[in-house]
Amino acid sequence: MLTATQHRTLTFIRRYLKRRGYAPSLIEIAEGIGITSKGTAHRHVQALADAGRIRLITGRKRGIELVDENEVSKSSLPLLGTIAAGQPIEAIAGQDRLDLADYLLGPNRYALQVKGDSMVDAGILDGDLVIIERCDTADDGAIVVALIDDEEATLKRLRRLKSGRIKLIAENPDISPMIYAAKRVRIQGVLACQLRRYW
What we know:
The chain is α+β, with helices and mostly antiparallel strands. The chain is 24% helix and 29% strand. A seven-stranded antiparallel sheet has the order 5-6-11-7-8-9-10, with no helix packed on it. The radius of gyration is 22 Å and the shape is elongated.
C-alpha cells in the first residue's frame, strides 16, 4: 500500500504527464510535492515503481511511464476498512486498495502448497499455500523452508542452538523437533505470507 506522500507523488506525476506530455524530473517532483531533497523524491519514485504503479525506463531522460490503471486493478482489491475478530467495532468504510502484488509477488518469491499438519499452531494448515521469500539465511525464530541433506525440504521454525546445531521446530505439540548439524541444513527461504481458500 502507498503512503500519503507516495500517493501525492503519483498524483503529481500523473497530472504533469497529462499537462506536458512528458514526465517530470526528480527536481520537479520534489518541488511539486513540497520537499527539497532530490534523493527523497527518488525514493518515492522508486517505491512507486516497486509497487507497480509506474515504470522506470533506464537510459531515458525523464524515463517514467504510468502503468495502466486497469493493469493495476487486476492485482488489487478494494480495502474497505477493518473488521473486529473480537469485540464488535464500528464499521467505517475506507477508500484504499490492497495491492496483492505487495504480498504475493516479487523477483525472489515463490509459492509452495503445504502438506501435513506440523505447523497448525502457527495457523498453517494442510492444503494452504505459503509464499516464500527466497534467501539463504534467516533470523532465529523465523518460519523457514529448510533443505535437509540436499534431499528433503520442510517448513519449520528455525532455532540455532549454542552447540552450533540447527533445531527445526514443528508448531504441533505431537511432533518432536528435529536437530541437525548445521552443515546438513540449508535455508531456502522464509515465510512471507500464506493463502487459504474456503470454497
